[in-house]
Amino acid sequence: AISTGRVLHEKLRFMGSGPLQADLDEVAGTTLHSIIDGVYLDASSIGHAVAVGADEVVAFVSLPSVVWAHFAGWPSTESCLTDLVEIPLIQDTCPVCYTNHQIFEEPYEDVERIFDQTSWNLAQPS
To answer: How far is CA 23 from the centre of its chain?
Structure first.
């Protein structure tokens, strides 16, 4: 899937003019779809891609914990207000909260451990 996306991207990027209808039809005829979101929606794109049949997903996320939300054992809801203000003694702010949807059966602790052992941590440019 990555090589298919790379080939299509390079073809469209370097064609020198806007794509023709045949080019757009070629892209639409693949199972490759690009989903871009940001800030609070990283996990949504991953979940959507898997739900529609993706067998490979490449994600650039600022916090890996957004990925763990798709695995067994992660809380199904998380407070979103405590990111903004400290609310003493209140853990659950639902219905004003983030919802997480489990789509993988593996425990998040196992996946997190493997990730920590094999991932590359890139330093931010100074």
So the answer is: 27
